[in-house]
Write a structure and sequence with these properties.
heterodimer; A: mainly alpha; MetI-like fold; 2 domains; 78% helix; flat; B: MetI-like fold; Immunoglobulin-like; five-stranded antiparallel β-sheet; 14 helices; 50% helix; 10% strand
């Protein structure tokens, strides 16, 4: 009896509390919904613009589709996916992004391991140097490398663009991975060394598997960074055009080329978005490791 | 854990080389081999170019044969030199960027991080706000350029603005109309019929220049008004039919214009009557009495709809860019600050709450001070990022306003590769940019050294 009596008012109160909570939180929820929507609208707008026929996109806003959904068409995408210029730009972008990511991960992990676990004179100085290079603006290297690439006849090649990216990706990579490797318990390494494992064996079989979370973060960062790059490719490429540079070439006639610019821009951001959604956790981890530590 | 499997496995099974005493030389060699690729890349692509750029900045456009001392740097700061317009503007804009963006991004990130902790769908919110971080600044520029189009029928920002402005200040029925005969003259935004009117008179107010699509749907065939004793009658009509028609004459296929405000003024200019035209454009002022009158189509009839703000024009381009940039980076600040918030000791907050502090007091006196290290990291990171902004400006600002939108990083590129090809001044701008980040560089190294000890 007493238990039931005690339970009833409690339950009623919890319902009331719940209602009160929902009512009290309504303004906050509405505010955050509005903000969230505000953050989504531009991207949605780009997508809708990309599926409008040129004649409509040139003179009305994308929201027209809500009153007349039948105007939507895939023809812009269809035309673009038959455009050899865009297709080769996409291929170039993929080469640059994948090539850079693999190179930065491998070279960065090797250097990170050396700076974390190998002992040699001047190690701390190298590390300080790497940290110093973290914030050097890439503008400092554009002119010299432009001249050097020209002299070496590797100007306007995928390789020259990749190497530039790799170098400027390395300070962050080395810093991030070194910090991660330092945190691996020392006895795992020591026992492997006592057992006579070579440093290469330790690196390949211990460090890389154990460092996987950090490596994943780094790889995602590097991939997005190079996929999205404009300035490096614009400087060192003329016929070697990744997608950003290809779209850049269309910008002069923004109004009349919108049926090309909008879908091409959307194509350019589909891959980063997919990577972002698939590996969001690692992306955030890398962000935190890079900024908080 | 992958590590567990590996340590449990006897290394002998993987056939490693026999145990050895790694000599000093061997250890150094391993270190050298592991470091070599990174060191080569960093030296050739970062250290050598940095030195080259510094040296190059003291030579003229033609190359190393032409030493000019600090002349290239003077171009940056001394007015009335060749490229001063672009460079001074760029520096001014960069100051605006640094003054506005890091503070706003940090503040927004803090607010979002604190508020999302209180809702159940925080993951969805965080994803939405964080999403722009994955998109290239270049594509973001394209995205916002679509948003910023000036014509409110094209640009979403101005469309929103128009719906607000027009709700307060509704546009006229005939924004584009003009008189069909010289008898109607424009005065104070309205159209006045020059012919004086008396009781029993007729006012023919013909206008033209109205696109068929803009004719009100309720419009009916205009009819010649019949004079009424004691009253003034009239008609407002679209004095145009396919083929043209005779100006000033009401003909078949010419429609009356409904909803138009017509004023009647006495000879001293006072408004003595006000009416609105019917579906066939006719109107009547009853019992006007003696005297001379003038009729007039009120100015509100011709009020133009709001034309939109020129977001991409020279005056507003920098604020427009700032908004788009904050849109990109707010998610970054929110996530980093959110992580700091999650790591904060909850009992301190609870203690403050039980002591009777309001939520705002807890926020100001406890949360913010405890988060100060994280906030400063976000703030400093944003200063560095802001100094590098380039892609967004290139894609968002139309060519005609890129001078007005320029920042140091963009000026460096345009001076060096955008046609001028002045590597001397370009190098000087790059060095200037580098000097700006040196305090952060020093801060990073100092922080690392204190952590290491």
């Amino acid at each position: 009896m007493t238990a039931v009596a005690a339970e009833l008012p409690a339950r009623r109160e919890s319902v009331a509390a719940r209602v009160a909570r929902i009512v009290l939180k309504a303004p906050l929820n509405l505010l955050l919904m509005a903000v969230g929507l505000l953050w989504l609208v531009p991207t949605i707008g780009l997508f809708i613009t990309s599926i409008l026929p040129a004649s409509i996109a040139e003179q009305s806003g994308w929201w027209k589709i809500f009153s007349k959904p039948s105007i939507a068409t895939w023809s812009n995408y269809d035309a673009l996916l038959h455009d050899s210029g865009l297709l080769s730009a996409l291929k170039t972008t993929a080469y640059i992004a994948v090539g850079n990511t693999v190179a930065v991960v491998v070279i960065g992990a090797m250097a990170g391991y050396a700076l974390a676990w190998l002992e040699f004179p001047g190690r701390d100085w190298v590390l300080v140097g790497v940290i110093g290079l973290l914030v050097v603006p890439l503008q400092m290297a554009l002119i010299p490398m432009f001249s050097l690439y020209d002299k070496l006849h590797i100007f306007d090649t995928v390789l020259s663009i990749i190497l530039f990216h790799v170098a400027f990706g390395l300070p962050f990579a080395v810093f991030l991975l070194r910090n991660f490797f330092v945190g691996i318990p020392k006895d795992i390494l020591e026992s492997a060394r006592i057992d006579g494992a070579s440093e290469f064996w330790i690196f390949l079989r211990l460090m890389l598997p154990l460092g996987l979370p950090a490596i994943a973060s780094l790889a995602i960062f590097q991939f997005l960074w190079t996929w999205n790059d404009l300035i490096v490719a614009l400087t060192f490429g003329q016929n070697t055009q990744p997608i950003t540079v290809w779209i850049f070439g269309q910008l002069r006639e923004f109004g009349t080329s919108i049926d090309v610019i909008a879908p091409a821009s959307f194509i350019s951001l589909v891959v980063p978005l997919a990577v972002f959604f698939a590996f969001q956790r690692y992306f955030v981890q890398g962000l935190l490791a890079g900024s908080v530590k | 854990m992958p590590g567990a499997g590996i340590t449990a496995e006897p290394p002998a099974a993987a056939a490693p080389p026999p145990p050895r005493e790694p000599g000093l030389a061997g250890r150094y060699l391993a270190g050298a081999i592991f470091l070599a690729p990174a060191l080569v890349l960093l030296t050739v692509w970062m250290v050598y170019p940095a030195i080259y750029t510094i040296v190059r900045s003291f030579y003229g456009q033609s190359g190393f044969g032409h030493f000019v001392g600090f002349d290239n740097y003077k171009q940056l700061f001394v007015p009335f030199s060749i490229s001063q317009n672009l460079l001074l503007k760029s520096i001014r804009n960069n100051i605006i960027w640094v003054a506005v963006v890091p503070a706003l991004v940090t503040a927004l990130g803090l607010i979002f991080a604190v508020l999302t902790e209180r809702v159940r769908w925080s993951v969805a919110f965080k994803t939405a706000v964080f999403l722009p971080m994955a998109i290239s600044a270049f594509a973001t520029g394209v995205t916002w350029r679509i948003m910023y189009q000036q014509d409110p029928t094209q640009g979403a920002v101005n469309a929103l603005g128009r719906s607000v402005v027009d709700a307060v200040h509704s546009p006229g029925v005939l924004p584009s109309a003009f008189p069909s005969t010289p008898k109607l003259v424009s005065k104070g935004g309205g159209l006045v019929l020059k012919t004086p009117l008396h009781a029993g008179g007729v006012a023919l107010l013909g206008v033209t220049g109205i696109a068929p699509a803009d004719v009100p749907t309720s419009a009916a065939q205009a009819v010649d008004p019949k004079p009424q004793p004691g009253s003034i009658v009239g008609v407002v009509w679209r004095d145009f039919k396919p083929g043209g028609g005779v100006p000033g004459k009401i003909e078949k296929q010419e429609l009356g214009l409904p909803g138009v405000t017509v004023d009647l003024r006495s000879s001293d200019g006072k408004v003595v009557g006000k009416t609105t035209s019917d579906a066939n454009g006719s109107f009547v002022f009853k019992n006007v009495g003696a005297g001379t009158f003038q009729s007039e189509i009120g100015s509100q009839t011709f009020r133009k709809p709001w034309g939109g703000v020129s977001w991409l024009g020279p005056k507003l381009i920098t604020p427009s860019l700032l908004i788009a940039y904050i849109w990109i980076w707010a998610g970054f600040a929110m996530v980093v600050i959110g992580a700091g918030l999650a790591a904060m000791p909850r009992d301190v907050l609870e203690a403050a709450r039980t002591d009777g502090a309001t939520e705002f007091q807890v926020f100001r006196r406890v949360t913010v001070p405890l988060l100060a290290p994280v906030l400063s990291v976000v703030f400093i990171t944003m200063i560095i990022n802001v100094l590098k902004v380039f892609d967004l400006i290139v894609s968002l600002a139309p060519e005609s306003t890129q001078n007005d939108a320029s920042v140091i990083a963009l000026a460096m590129w345009r001076t060096s590769f955008g046609g001028q090809n002045n590597f001397g001044v370009g190098s000087a701008i790059a060095v200037f940019l580098f000097v700006l980040v040196i305090p952060v560089l020093a801060l990073n190294i100092r922080r690392f050294k204190t952590e290491a000890t």
